[in-house]
Amino acid sequence: MAKEESGVEEIIPGLIVRHTNRRLGRLELSDACERLICGKISFSEFVDQVGEGFRELLDFMMEHDLHPGRPEEVVYCVDCYADFCCRETIRSQLGELYRMGAARVAGAKAS
Description:
Shape: globular
């Protein structure tokens, strides 16, 4: 039976699987970061919102089954398991993710 007939599509390596089809509307970067950290949106929804700027970090977290809401665990795994050439990029993206998420939380508390 052909793939088209069976409804099976070819798997593309490096493509983040979409876990949901809900529509979020456009989120600000800080809101998207905060929602990812809190587990309110999936990695794929986050990429849909912010683009490819965090791709290396998200790929690493998915590969090692990490959750961004546990920053100490993520940092430990980056230090232990990330390739030396990619480590700085991943740490930079991780820092940006937490800075933007914290900015959103601080802004909400100030209101």
